[in-house]
Design brief:
The protein is of the alpha+beta class and 105 residues long. It has one domain. Helices cover 22% and strands 43% of the residues. The protein has a 5-stranded antiparallel beta sheet. The protein is elongated. The mean pLDDT is 81.
Length: 105
């Protein structure tokens, strides 16, 4: 039993030390990442509303959620998109979050 736990622990260590990140980001911090970045501006619509949609990752093995532009639009009550931004958080590959932030009217 102890050998099995040791193998699982070592496997987890190798997976987390390989430089992979559980969420997309323009920068990667091995211990912690908290980055916001812009992706696109669609048109000159007034940005009076904001909508956000997120997906999360646990141990870079299980990921759930809907971080689509459509979900963010629905969450903010937006029909005309002006700007689409993203944010990414990651803590040691244990927990990660990727969000889409939409601004528009």
């Amino acid at each position: 039993m102890k050998k099995a736990l040791a193998v699982i622990f070592l496997g987890f260590c190798f997976l987390t030390l390989n430089g992979c990140m559980g969420v997309a980001s323009p920068v990667a911090g091995w211990v912690y990442t908290d980055a916001k970045y812009g992706n696109e501006a669609e048109n000159g619509a007034a940005a009076t509303k904001t909508g956000k949609a997120c997906a999360t990752s646990i141990l870079t093995m299980v990921a759930t959620g809907d971080a689509s532009v459509e979900a963010a639009k629905a969450n903010g009550g937006i029909t005309q998109v002006a700007v689409v931004d993203h944010s990414a958080k990651n803590i040691l590959g244990i927990w990660g979050e990727f969000c889409t932030i939409v601004r528009g009217s």
